[in-house]
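Example record

The entry below shows one chain as it appears in the dataset: sequence first, then structure tokens.
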Amino acid sequence: MKTRIELEETGKKILNAVRTELYLSMRFMGQALGSLGFTMDLSTRTVGTDAVSIRFNPAYLFQMYIERPEILNRTYMHMLMHCLFRHMFSAKEYEDTELWDLCCDIAAESVVDSMDYPSIQRVTSDFRNEWYEKLENEVSVLTAEKLYHYFILRKRDPYLEESLRQEFALCDHSFWERMQSSEEESPTAGAQSQNSSEEQQQTDGVKEENKDAVPLGSTKPNEAEWKEHAKRIESDMETYAKDAAEDAGNLLWMLSMQNRVRKSYKEFLKRFAVVREEVSIDMDSFDYGFYMHGLNLYGNMPLIEENEYREAKRVEELVIAIDTSASCKERLVQQFLDETGAILKNQENFFHKVNIRILECDNQIQNDLQITNLDEIEKYTKEFKVKGGYGTDFRPVFSYVEQLRRQGELRDLKGLMYFTDGFGEYPTKPTDYDTVFVFYGDEEREESKVPDWALKLYLDKSEGEHR
């Protein structure tokens, strides 16, 4: 027993020394670094985390601390990336566990490799650099979710995936599965199922297999806590730790994407809505009692008719600008067009009679289409042809909109949506209506230049995402 206690205490001292070294390099990550405890766990041959503790095999720690201490720093930071991006909490959403583990390792390592701190730096192999270049070209943003979809949609190569696993894996992910198992356990001790005997046999088998495993304990991993850590680090790197953030590589950008608040497109459009009367039967104000009394008393003469008008809150006036500049890929322009069509076809959000201006633009206005009836959108989407293709300057659109307002063609403008890739000259003067710069997925890398007074909207293939 004494030997076990000594092994655990020595292992904790090693990890504490690693944590201190990382803290001296990255003080803005202090609270996140201190959030993980240390627990000896002989069910692993190496080291891993369950988002509560770093669980270690002392033999592995002793060997690495003597032979390759820099790898321990690297592994600690690797595990911290898993926690900040909450990979272990998302694992249950993906059917192919091994592929998800690989994608999480690539995502974590890509961020750590971009960081310029001597305590975690290592010479990257040609194989790793080649795959970074390939993935950045084909996936653009190396998040675990995007990498998973990339690999799942291409022809699978088990030998290649194993090579990637050998290259990028640094920690044991088996604790993630145990987290899920503990979440699925019933809190009621007396609850039993028809297959209780079979389940008990399986449980006994697992206990025999992991007899040296330390239970995860009563302190459950808290995803909300790690979400707060990620937000705090992002905030600190944008404010007082700006100088330190220069050496943090892609960490700030990846955290900003991870921390985006999601909101449905339908909900987002409500900010442009106005209250108007529209021609429509208002069944809420219809009184069946008086109606039937009139029919019974006078034959076919009801005492009250349906109210032919009702109040509705929908979008009536909106400007949509589509970036057709050279920097905006043709694929993006088509996606923006499809999204525009989807917006306008959703008549639940719009009055039937509207004043929608669709502006195609690059460094000037290339085309101005006015839509007064939503039925016209079908014709527009069929006849659309990209005009322009020069550089991007957002300012002419805002000048043109002001001109339309002065001429009385836009009387009650609530918002302007600008579909773009983010590259261009932004206006400096705030607008008295809502201005939204719309990006498709994570294509844009220039979002830091978007004015503070403007909103940002992120779209994917399923729906809009709002920040």
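Notes for this example: The first helix runs from residue 2 to 25. The chain is about 45% helix and 15% strand.
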